[in-house]
DUF1146 domain-containing protein
Amino acid sequence: MPPLEIIFNIVVIGISFVYWVIAFIIVYHLNRFGIGVQPKKFAAIFLFGSLVLASISTILFTKVDITMFIK
């Protein structure tokens, strides 16, 4: 693996880590300090959307062939 690709992978992993830390902070604060049910619903929707977007970006980044999963 060329050094430039290793650096790129480290940067992508770092950005992904920062994204998940920020997503966790948002979800935690909405659940902990939200009054009523609405902030908790918003936190659940936000977490689901974050998981979907992270999964899609991981699949696209690693260039996984998803046709073997869809039959």
